[in-house]
Specification:
This is Sigma factor regulator C-terminal domain-containing protein. The chain is α+β, with helices and mostly antiparallel strands and 309 residues long. The chain is built from five helices and 14 strands. It has a domain of 180 residues.
Amino acid sequence: MDKNQQFEKMARRVRWRRLITTILIVIVTVPVILILGYKASQMLAAYQVQKLNTEMCGREEIMAPNIQISDQMLANNSVWGGQVVSHRYKEIDGYRVPWSMAIGNYSLLNNSVLANNIGSVDLANSGAYDRDTQTKIPVLYNNRVKRPIVKPAQEIAKVAKMKNYVAEVAVTFDHPLTYAEIQQKLPTTIKANWLWLGVSGKADSTDMENDLLGIQLENGKINEEEYQQHRRTFQQASKLELLDYDGFDMAKYVQQYAQKYPKLKQAKFAGMIVSGRSEEFKALANQSWITASSVGAAVKRVPYQPVSY
């Protein structure tokens, strides 16, 4: 074998060794890269889920008029993103009424959630309705708006004539009231479920897709500690990506509210949503401090399920 043949043989060996080495490197590194990439994507997704979950919880705390959540869960998930879904309901004096879901989307790099109810409200001459369930929405009014999208209603007297029902009614005050003043005016047979913070200027609250700012009460009551918890959420409103409605900056308004009313005894409310047995609403009919009353969900009472209030 001459020197040229020996050189070619050695060269072939070197090439094979390099090829085998390259293949081994690929076999080892590609799975490692895939695993690291998957873990990185999961970390990014987890961050977006946590951020989205915080935003949705904050919104549902301060911007869900007498609407409560039964759970908040992941749905339609993939490596690239998915959804956070809240199943919601209303509780009307012990009777539960299904409500539309709140849904947020997330990807590896961002997340987005529309205002809690935007796009899920149908407007009609007779009022506003939840699009998914077609349940009537109790409407609150800005007294400074002369011609709101939804015509002001006076429905308490009609509710009082209903027999064997439980109902929720949105009550708009003629002027802002403190919690103590509300307790004095409200009959003991009617429960305050939700207190409305109001709006600024001439913002039309009937044209806000039911995205109103307020406080949900536990068993019709609220104490200073609970108010401070809500107030802390008010102060963080700029992180919740709330919408503006016709110049009404919701985040700015609720932050100013928290600053203006540092204590529960100072806080003033523009209206409320109350619930109770239909016959008991007679005590609220024709009250001068009520400028509008709009009924929402109403449920026929049944003997096997007593009312809660």
